[in-house]
Amino acid sequence: MHKKEIINSNSNNCINTLRDSISNYIKPVVKSGRPLVILCIGTDRSTGDSLGPLVGEKLKFLDRDNVFVYGNLKTPVHSKNLQENINLIYSTYNNPFIVAIDASLGSLQSIGSISLQNKPLRPGAAMNKDLPPIGDISITGIVNISGGLEFMVLQNTRLYVVMRLADIISKGVYHSIIKTIGGKNTASNVI
After folding, report:
1. Which helix or strand (DSSP H or E) is residue 142 part of?
2. Mean local confidence (pLDDT), 170-190
3. Which residue has the higher pLDDT, 28 or 151?
4. Which residue of 17, 38, 59, 144 is most buried, as measured by CB atoms within 10 A?
5. Which CATH superfamily includes the segment(s) 4-180?
């Protein structure tokens, strides 16, 4: 059964709420020894769609055994290379657990909210792109309103909203890793 949790980014404990929710999903994964892949989707060429690469950029220092981050400002994962990255992930890791992160559009009241679901996300849905669904769980930050002219809406999204969501999501992910896995290792796992 699919579960959807909406987290208000204006809440004082939003990072802790996100941390605890992510930890609940990844704790059994970590115990089983499955590799954990954090897939940050988006492009740095559009303010509204830069959430994923910004989260990846903030997580690039994350050095933990069996945790791997794909997508950042230098090497974004976007519509043109998504399938290639998915193929790479599945050919590199045995039964990876994928946390997919992307921006999304929603209602005016939901701007600034974070959605966590135990189902794949559909990247590019706002732009009517036919991309493969990806993720065992998905985290989306609602950056602006949907309803028409999505390309223009994404291009005219406030950077403040995107940066705030990127800070909260990256901290929630980072602290969920600390909570479930613990200390640093010496190898870099950023792709």
Report:
1. strand 137-145
2. 79
3. 28
4. 38
5. HybD-like (3.40.50.1450)
Confidence category of residue 185, pLDDT binned at 50, 70, 90 = low
Q: What is the pLDDT of residues 74-99, one digit of tens each?
A: 999 999 999 999 999 999 999 999 99
Do 102 and 138 contact (CB within 8 A), yes or no?
A: yes
- CB-CB contact of 114 with 168 (8 Å): yes
Pair 181, 63: CB distance under 8 Å: no
User: In a 10 Å sphere around its CB, with 0-12 CB exposed, 13-18 middle and 19+ buried, how is residue 115 labelled?
Assistant: middle
pLDDT above 90 coverage of the chain, percent: 71
Could you identify the residue written with the tokens 């990806």? 134
Break the chain into its structural domains and give their ranges.
Answer: 4-180
What separation in angstroms does the CA of 40 have from each of 12, 13, 98, 144? 25, 23, 10, 18
0.90 exceeded by pTM = yes
